[in-house]
Queue: 3 jobs
Job 1
Amino acid sequence: MLSHSDCRVGLRGLPPESVDLTVTSPPYGGMRRFGGHEFDWNVFADVANELWRVTKPGGILCWQEGEEVIRTGPRKGSYSGLPTAHAMYLQDLGFLRWDRLITGVTGIRCPDAGKRYLCPPTDLFVLTKGEPKNVALLEDRLNSTVGKHRRTTDRRADGTLRIRKPYGATKEMGRRTTIWLYPAGASTTRDAGVRREFPALMIEALARDLILSYSLPGDLVLDPFAGACTTGKLALLLDRKFVGFEVHEPYFQMGAERLRVAAGAAALARSKRCFA
Ligand SMILES: C[S@@+](CC[C@H](N)C(=O)[O-])C[C@H]1O[C@@H](n2cnc3c(N)ncnc32)[C@H](O)[C@@H]1O
């Protein structure tokens, strides 16, 4: 369900402790005024308080926020640091900082690229209400030694080398790291119209990976800043339920259409499974 409303109002309509997973990307400070709507500290704090209220014990909040470049004044040209301040506020509310992922799109230039390295990182804070109840870490199988026997060394407390017995590298070692980079283009979305019209899409592969990592089929997934509804689309395709809010009418329409198509595809996939 996607609602055309300010999420500060919409969230108040959700029952307490009803959401299993939130996957969201708020506006990056004042970098873009989506339909003229402000995202200042007061708006953030209202939303954060509501997110704490609606999250189930053991539930998870994935908060992806990129840095805004300050455009005027003595700090002109520098990053605002707001994502870190927001994460601290969420921690003060009671969320646990469970993980911190660095996400990015390869090939993207930083603002003022001549003075910064390529591919600006975007913080993704994984915050939990108590110990998380559903975590299924992804494997990338990048580590070619998984399952093979190899000899390794470590060091004793006095610093001298110790050769350890050969052992089979565990599955653990094939796990993805906390740095999640996606290629630009197709991994964003195949919905070409949305890619053209919406200025700040979450990468679909990222939404998919977060939903698979931190929820189960049937869980309720929330996105208070739904935009073109990438989280919602992937939630439905992965057999989760979805609730979202979008304040700006044209984006709401875009998101609603994407959800409608995803709901159809998910229903078709379910019926194929039934008759398989
Ligand atoms: C960074 S975009 C989210 C993009 C989304 N993850 C996607 O992939 O489509 C932020 C969205 O939040 C919306 N927004 C800003 N303030 C809002 C508010 N108070 N309530 C609901 N939506 C809001 C903006 O209109 C914008 O579409």
Note: Residues 139-175 form one domain.
Job 2
Amino acid sequence: MDSNEVFLQIPMLPNMELAATETAHRVAEFMQFDPDKIDEIKIAMIEGIINAFEHSQSKDKTVYIKFLMRGDELEVTIQDFGHGFDLDSAKKEPEQLRKRGHGLNLMEGLMDRVDIYATPNGTKVIMVKRRHSSDE
Ligand SMILES: Nc1ncnc2c1ncn2[C@@H]1O[C@H](COP(=O)(O)OP(=O)(O)O)[C@@H](O)[C@H]1O
Ligand SMILES: [Mg+2]
């Protein structure tokens, strides 16, 4: 099978999420994504990575990122080994009670598919963007 993955690991330090979005840009460009879709991928990734930075409290202070080029789809996995969270209550919490809290919704709006696996051993966000959306 041909090689179709790019791996990155970034330290939880200021602006290091941009090291990941620079890579995303090059990968998506290689896959011939349109510029607007590349921007959507990058914004979704910033939300996911900043969430890991701000909320995970992982001891290794590292975020693990995988890009999987799968035909017309780019799958991006953002993983940390922090304490995780309760996805249902994070989503249910009424927005007017929170000063922020749009990251998870934003990611879902920007990507074609977002799956979140949160456990006490960490959080894995798997998001997929298609080069051609079905509504085009
Ligand atoms: N990687 C993560 N590790 C631990 N908790 C997380 C992670 N990602 C999200 N969360 C939890 O989900 C909540 C909602 O995330 P989000 O919608 O991005 O809002 P915000 O980051 O503004 O609080 C966060 O407040 C946090 O409690
Ligand atoms: Mg957030």
Note: Residues 35-55 form the longest helix (21 residues).
Job 3
Amino acid sequence: MRGYSRVLVTGGAGFIGSHLVDRLLGEGFEVVVLDDFSSGRMENLSGCFGRDGFVLVRGDVRDRDVVRKVVEGVDVVFHLAALVSVPVSVENPVLVEDVNVGGTLNVLKVCVDVGVKRFVFAGSCAVYGEGHGVPRREDDVLDPISPYGVSKLAGEFYCRVFYRVYGLETVVLRYFNVYGPRQVYGPYSGVISIFINRLLEGRPPVIFGDGNQVRDFVYVKDVVEANFLAMFSKNAVGEVFNVGSGRCTSINELAGLLIELMGVDVKPVYSDPRLGDIRYSCADISRARKVLGFEPKVSLREGLLETIAWFKENYGRKTA
Ligand SMILES: NC(=O)c1ccc[n+]([C@@H]2O[C@H](COP(=O)([O-])OP(=O)(O)OC[C@H]3O[C@@H](n4cnc5c(N)ncnc54)[C@H](O)[C@@H]3O)[C@@H](O)[C@H]2O)c1
């Protein structure tokens, strides 16, 4: 497999990580997962148990010994383990710093010590902060508005510095709003899983503000593809890439589309705007297109249909 055979996915029991694990196993890699199951779930990995080359280790990315054990013999590390909730980061910024920054630094350092070839980091569009009505480019000003955003920015900077100082081949992917099957549904989850679950209960989606705020919703399998490309691309090393669909969707449009796809006879309900809600968050993905050859393949309609089908099957089980 172009020189790589064994990979580590931290946070591999989570929403995005588990899809990446499925793909990596499917392509014949040996895959080690390190996860503390703070938000990850065993059932996300149900297709992996018993497969050749799959190893699951329950542990914390901040624990040097366990990280050393799982990184040994690995060619590529995909680092997705993190506390991902913005509200949690507001309530407990010290913990989020500890896991997202301290954990990332710990894994990076072990990768250098052990001689890992490549490190692919799950960054976030949260590093950009408030938008100004134009798609975000990687070299825009970075001005996070939450402790979570700061933690992701620190992780990025460590990646770049580890390339410059130690020569570790790091690649940063800044994910926008990722959605798809296995997405957590709970008080802190993303808008798509909340809207779908309300509609499954026959209740209208609740829109905060006027609904004209826009997001870039990217399907989880497209994000997995970006990780794959980042693993192999020569020119990606030391760089940062937006990973989005390249399309802007307003919350009004999203609600309308979900109502149509789910065939529920309701209209959205409007509520007060949420403090700190970003108005505009869309990705310019031209750099990822050019350098990685990244091309999102799943339309919002298709991705939502797959997500709705998954939630229907798993309906009633709150996942967070
Ligand atoms: N979902 C999105 O829209 C989105 C957007 C931007 C960036 N990201 C990033 O993508 C990555 C994956 O996010 P996700 O949406 O799949 O969330 P998730 O919560 O499903 O996955 C995170 C995983 O990390 C694990 N984890 C947390 N703390 C850990 C620790 N200390 N040690 C070991 N494992 C730990 C969790 O148990 C979980 O399995 C995160 O780094 C997140 O910041 C996600």
Note: The pocket of nicotinamide-adenine-dinucleotide is lined by residues 10-11, 13-17, 34-40, 60-62, 80-84, 99, 103, 122, 124, 175, 177-178, 184, 190 (CB under 6 Å).
